[in-house]
């Protein structure tokens, strides 16, 4: 029995290229390599044998430049009788995206080449020089070897969700850096504000004033009463009055520790800390702005998420709006996948298997060959699962008992979540909790505070 060419080592994309090259009209395919840049792009036109038909030329990033590219392609089409055009574009920042869209409008087959792939192509021929011409040759060779991913037109909502979720992650990271700066300035102004180590029943324990450093009450005091002298001037009565007036909800324990830690403080006088106090106020302003931006972006993420199949993931305990958005956006069009293992491979969280010479196969670390953003989202999702999903917590304990490290556990739980998400989104079924778990209504109410959005969830994913 004769088997068709291997299921390509690169999966569906490689198999698609195999079928294209094995077609009866393979010689009628025009190969166009494009090296994208911010202002001036470079291109080269070849045939499927790698013969250069049009030498490397430049065209600008504006519409006139693209018209020049199309003109060169059409002239090659007429001159050599090409029937199909395959364009290979290297992923350079975000500059390649408009080229991809314009080429698709011209009905060209677009294959996206990762910059790391072309770098490896240069290494195989021991060519470490990097010029536009060398890059174009590397892109062409990568195309001819079946590298790259066939471009699929992104669904608009999923594209919006990806843009929003990545922007949200950037804002969260920026907010964390701002909080760290605030911690630094408070170390100079009132070191004990973040806690004091004391001996309790023979053991050293860190006693904190506030459980969360950036809580409402903590931020208010840092803005208006940051120095120990300010706290002592207020006193217990003043702190209680302030708590009522500003709705800070200061507990008795917090008030007692604030005063006690202020008396013990070794900070400089307020007069000697004017620079730090100014920078603290600026960082608090920055934090307030970033928090407002995060809130606005998250609200828009919720709105878009509930218009996609990914909103169903909110029914899983431990999967909040951020996790559901990130996973849905990074997965993209689920119709392109036949099994969840393809998602795991796309994320690069699949374990590497080593086997040779009939020896028993062994599993090593994860491949990290997929999308970095997707892989990071899977890791964060696994971490959330361990902390908030009872069923996943049980699996985590089992893995910990077997000696697995915490990072390995997070990845394993993230992969389990991908399999679960794949099944739920394909079958359009909400999560079925174990007996005794929280009701779906309470789970959704804890994640979507807006009543209208709760109604949208049940109308889309439950009632229909």
What are the salient characteristics of this protein?
about 475 residues, alpha+beta, 6-stranded mixed beta sheet, about 10% strand, disordered N terminus
Structure write-up:
- With 464 residues, this protein is an alpha+beta fold.
- The protein has helices at 12-21, 63-80, 96-105, 115-124, 132-144, 156-189, 216-224, 228-245, 252-264, 274-305, 321-331, 340-347, 372-388, 390-401, 406-427, 440-447, 451-462; strands at residues 29-35, 40-46, 52-60, 84-90, 109-113, 149-150, 196-200, 203-207, 351-354, 362-366.
- Strands 3-2-1-4-5-6 form a six-stranded mixed beta sheet, sandwiched between helices.
- Helix 12 crosses helix 15 and helix 13 (372-388) crosses helix 14.
- The radius of gyration is 29 Å and the shape is elongated.
- The relative contact order is 0.07.
* Distance separating the two termini: 48 Å
Radius of gyration, rounded?
Answer: 29 Å
Low-confidence stretches: 1-11
Give the assembly state of these chains: single chain
- Average pLDDT metric: 89
Q: How would a textbook summarize the main sheet?
A: 6 strands, mixed
Helices and strands, in order, run as: HEEEHEHEHHEHEEHHHHHHEEHHHHH
């Amino acid at each position: 029995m004769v088997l068709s060419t291997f299921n390509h080592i690169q999966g569906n994309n490689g198999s698609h290229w195999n079928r294209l090259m094995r077609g009866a009209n393979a010689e009628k395919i025009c190969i166009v390599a494009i090296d994208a840049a911010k202002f001036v792009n470079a291109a080269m036109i070849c045939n499927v044998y790698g013969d250069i038909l049009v030498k490397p030329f430049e065209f600008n990033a504006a519409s006139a430049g693209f018209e020049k590219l199309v003109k060169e392609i059409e002239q090659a089409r007429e001159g050599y009788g090409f029937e199909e055009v395959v364009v290979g574009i290297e992923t350079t920042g975000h500059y390649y995206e408009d080229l991809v869209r314009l080429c698709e409008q011209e009905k060209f087959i677009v294959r996206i080449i990762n910059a790391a792939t072309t770098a490896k192509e240069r290494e195989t021929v021991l060519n470490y020089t990097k010029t536009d011409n060398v890059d174009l040759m590397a892109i062409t060779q990568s195309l001819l070897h079946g590298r790259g991913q066939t471009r699929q037109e992104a669904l608009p909502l999923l594209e919006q969700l990806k843009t929003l979720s990545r922007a949200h992650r950037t804002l969260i990271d920026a907010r964390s850096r701002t909080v760290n700066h605030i911690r630094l300035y408070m170390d100079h102004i009132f070191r004990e504000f973040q806690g004091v180590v004391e001996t309790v029943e023979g053991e050293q324990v860190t006693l904190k004033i506030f459980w969360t450093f950036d809580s409402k009450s903590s931020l208010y005091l840092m803005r208006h009463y940051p120095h120990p002298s300010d706290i002592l001037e207020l006193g217990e009565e003043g702190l209680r009055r302030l708590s009522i007036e500003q709705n800070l909800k200061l507990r008795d324990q917090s008030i007692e520790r604030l005063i006690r830690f202020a008396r013990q403080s070794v900070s400089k006088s307020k007069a000697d800390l004017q620079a730090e106090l100014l920078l603290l106020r600026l960082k608090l302003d920055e934090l307030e702005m970033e928090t407002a931006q995060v809130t606005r972006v998250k609200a828009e993420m919720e709105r878009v998420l509930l218009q996609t199949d990914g909103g169903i993931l909110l029914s899983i305990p431990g999967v909040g709006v951020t996790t559901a958005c990130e996973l849905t956006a990074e997965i993209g069009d689920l119709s392109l996948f036949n099994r969840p293992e393809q998602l795991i491979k796309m994320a690069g969280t699949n374990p590497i298997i080593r086997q040779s010479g009939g020896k028993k196969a062994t599993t090593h670390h994860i491949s990290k060959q997929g999308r970095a953003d997707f892989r990071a989202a899977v890791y964060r999702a696994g971490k959330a699962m361990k902390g908030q999903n009872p069923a996943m917590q049980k699996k985590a304990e089992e893995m910990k008992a077997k000696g697995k490290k915490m990072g390995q556990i997070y990845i394993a739980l993230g992969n389990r979540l991908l399999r679960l998400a794949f099944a739920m989104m394909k079958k359009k079924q909400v999560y079925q909790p174990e007996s005794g778990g929280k009701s779906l209504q309470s789970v959704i109410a804890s994640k979507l505070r807006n009543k209208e959005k709760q109604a949208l969830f049940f109308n889309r994913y439950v009632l229909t």
